[in-house]
Amino acid sequence: MKPIKELNPQFLESTENKKHLIDYLLGVADNYLILGQRLGELCGHGPNLEPDIALTNISLDMLGQVRSFYQYIAQLRGDKSTEDDIAFLRKEREYKNVLLVEQPNTDFGYVIVRQFFFDVYNRMFLGALQQSADETLRALAFKGIKEASYHERFSGDWLKRLGDGTEESKTRVQQAVNDLWIYTDELFHTTNADDAMIAAGVAPDMLQLKEYYYEKVGELLSTATLEIPEVEYFQKGGKEGLHSEHMGYILTEMQYMQRAYPDSKW
Amino acid sequence: MSEAEIKNLEVQFDAKIARDEKIEPKDWMPEKYRKTHIRQISQHAHSEIVGMLPEGNWITRAPSLRRKVALLAKVQDEAGHGLYLYSACETLGITREQLYEDLHSGKAKYSSIFNYPTMTWADMGAIGWLVDGAAIINQVPLCSTSFGPYARAMVRVCKEESFHQRQGYEIMLSLCNGSEEQKEMAQDALNRWWWPSLMMLGPTDAASTHTEQSMKWKLKRKTNDELRQQFIDQTVPQAELLGLTIPDPDLKWNDEKGSYDFGEIDWDEFWQVVKGHGPMNKKRLDDRRNAWNNGAWVREAATAYAAKQKLKKEETAQAV
Ligand SMILES: [Fe+2]
Ligand SMILES: [Fe+2]
Ligand SMILES: [Fe+2]
User: Fold this and answer.
1) Which residue among B69, B300, B304 places its CB closest to the CB of A60?
2) DSSP result, B206-228
3) Pairwise CA distance, residues A254 & A198, whole Å
4) How many CB atoms sit inside 10 A of residue A132's CB?
């Protein structure tokens, strides 16, 4: 696909632009990291072998994406930092993932709803990113789009099974929808860095796709015979580094080895 | 069928195996063959999925993204092995649900090695290197076993197990090339996993039952003691290459027999763990039961949804 804009070759020579690009990329990639980590907790504990294998696959795809993004960030930084420094050596406030992906694996219903809310967004995002003015991002989007559509189909199919399955599954998954709905709006928030990248044509303007997102999600929820929650207030903050109380525990576990054995090779 | 007719079928059956032909699920087979195979294949399948737990324990703490991805993929492979093996077992006329029930009730066994805890990251190396290593020695002969679905499953499984073993050894190698602390971690893991790995090859020949029958059906090619010797002879040089010490003061090369002599295995410990009293037996079974019980509503939903969809299809077909 063609970029919507050509990137000015001097663009990255500005320190400010570069910093914005890095912050923007962290905002994208940290979602993959934290969701991949959350899904990793489930490996071996699924309701049956097939969904266990499928969720592990999604976790693997998320981690694959995150490595590509962090490697790109490391390259932009031009210092000695590696993908692992970026993944493991930041403090709570420096992670820029949305609150949705750090929500716990309360039960299989929550796992599927969290995944579906993210997958619909992610597929739209990668679709739009294929027109980024940045060549590396175009390539990453192109690489990721196929698996993203697969994820969306997987979580959407399960949402239908759970919604239109038994009384119990319907009650449970509706509860998950109600609880997680308040985290969907944040997906469309932009930081200053995001705005700068949108202006430069590097980042897609996801706000334009927001209506379409809720249409898609709503459509599937009604096929799944589930209700669309009506809420007055949404939660936000993750993208600015203001996380839930879960985040500290995720990081404690994830960073344990790197913190206990600094500067080691594994 | 008369007794003479059955006898005749059995003679033909044995001859078929002796000619190295495969027995397929639809073929006639003695009841004992069927039962033995259900027991062995399901035990193997259970080992794969219980085996996901000790390594799954380190996924969230893996020390680098590369290692996290590799570990996830490995544990996922074990789930795949479980899947092929349960499917092979199902061809013998038993369901996966029944097999799980036997696992959860404690009636069915799985490999005892998974009843030890994974305390440090080095255990991910030691398990790949030693446990997958011992599994390969046990399993390669099964690639040409007499029951077709089992043999074919094992061909796929063994390919992936050797990959796991190399990956585990590579984890050990990185540790041994690392800091003093990392090397100590590797040595400690070897100390803890060495003896249980030797026990994985099964009780000593004197104490092992139905070996003769298993030989005839090609469920076994070599005795447990022969396999154990093979494992030791193959592993000692690998430990030397890592610069690690095998925790056995009696281990010594024997020029005359062309293999290593080794110390006494603590068979009391072996039987304690087999009988369900190892450090992690309870936790492993609890984890499996919880995953299954907590997933009941999900499986029920899937079944109910599929039934509704089927009904809808039939109704549309009738309306046309
Ligand atoms: Fe395996
Ligand atoms: Fe195995
Ligand atoms: Fe393995």
Assistant:
1) B69
2) GG--SHHHHHHTTS-SS-HHHHH
3) 32
4) 24
Residue B65 Cα distances to A84, B69, B178, angstroms: 6, 6, 18
* Secondary structure, 3-state, B110-168: CCHHHHCCCCCCHHHHHHHHHHHHHHHHHHHHHHHCCEHHHHHHHHHHHHHHHHHHHHH
User: Is the Cβ of A107 closer than 8 Å to some Cβ of chain B?
Assistant: yes
Q: How many domains does chain A have?
A: 1
Domain B3-276 fold is Ferritin (1.20.1260)
CA separation for the pair A78, B168 (Å, rounded): 33
**Prediction pTM value:** 0.96
- Using a CB-CB cut-off of 8 Å, the residues of chain B touching A88 are 64
Q: Are B138 and B157 in contact (CB under 8 A)?
A: no
Percent of chain A with pLDDT over 70: 100
**Residue A234: inside a domain:** yes
Mutate: best of B298, B308, B310, partner A, most A CBs <10 A: B298
Give ipTM to 2 decimals. Answer: 0.97
Rounded to whole angstroms, the Cα distance separating B22 from A183 reads: 57
Confidence of residue B67 (pLDDT cuts 50, 70, 90): very high
pLDDT in tens, B157-178: 999 999 999 999 999 999 999 9
Alpha carbon separation from A162 to A173, A178, B33, B157 (Å, rounded): 6, 14, 41, 33
* d(CA A129, ligand 2 centre) in Å: 42
B101: distance to nearest CA of chain A, Å?
13
- Number of residues that make up chain B: 320
Of B75, B80, B302, the CB nearest to A165: B302
Do the domain assignments include residue A3? no
Burial (CB < 10 A; 0-12, 13-18, 19+), residue B204, is middle
Q: Does residue A170 form part of some domain?
A: yes
pLDDT at position A240 over 70 = yes
Interface test with A, best of B46, B61, B65 (most A CBs within 10 A): B65
Q: Read off the pLDDT of residues A113-147 as tens digits, 9 standing for 90 and up.
A: 999 999 999 999 999 999 999 999 999 999 999 99
pLDDT in tens, B124-160: 999 999 999 999 999 999 999 999 999 999 999 999 9
- Please tell me the predicted confidence (pLDDT) of residue A6: 81
Tokens of B251: 């281990």
pLDDT value for B206: 82
In-domain check, residue A4: no
> Tell me, what amino acid is at B203?
P
Q: Can you tell me whether residue B169 is helix, strand or coil?
A: helix
Report which residue type is found at B39: R
Tokens of A100: 């949705």
Q: Which helix (H) or strand (E) holds B253?
A: strand B252-254
Taking the CA of residue A258 and the nearest CA in chain B, the distance in Å comes to 6
Please give the structure tokens belonging to residue B214. 């298993």
pLDDT averaged over chain B? Answer: 96
Q: What CATH number is given to the structural domain containing A92?
A: 1.20.1260.10
> Residue A8: what pLDDT?
82
Range of the domain at A144: 15-260
Are A27 and A157 a contacting pair, CB within 8 Å?
A: no
